[in-house]
Amino acid sequence: MKVSVDRALCYGSAECAHRAPAVFAFEGGYGVVRPGREGWGDDPQVREAAERCPSQAIVLGE
Ligand code: SF4
Asked: Which of 3, 22, 28, 59 is most solvent-facing, going by the fewest CB within 10 Å?
């Protein structure tokens, strides 16, 4: 499953980068998916980060 961040929704809390640092980084005031990690949507830490993102900006999908 793929994971991405909708930058229009992200308000830069940086929580994703703390919860799943192998997959998310915090750059330029936004959460970003690290290069090469776009297919990690099934990872439990990624799923938790998505559930807890305060702005629902983490998108999981095919
Ligand atoms: S947890 Fe959500 S709002 Fe916070 S930086 Fe990550 S994507 Fe953005």
From this structure: 28
From first to last of its 62 residues, what are the pLDDT tens digits of the chain?
999 999 999 999 999 999 999 999 999 999 999 999 999 999 999 999 999 999 999 999 97
Question: What are the angstrom distances between the C-alpha of 61 and each of 5, 14, 22, 28, 37?
Answer: 11, 21, 19, 25, 14
Note down the domain range covering 20: 2-61
Q: What is the pLDDT of residue 60?
A: 98
Q: Residue 53 Cα, ligand 1 centroid: separation in angstroms?
A: 5
Domain of residue 43, CATH code? 3.30.70.20
The binding-site residues of ligand 1, defined as CB within 6 angstroms of any ligand atom, are 5, 10-16, 31, 53-55, 57-58
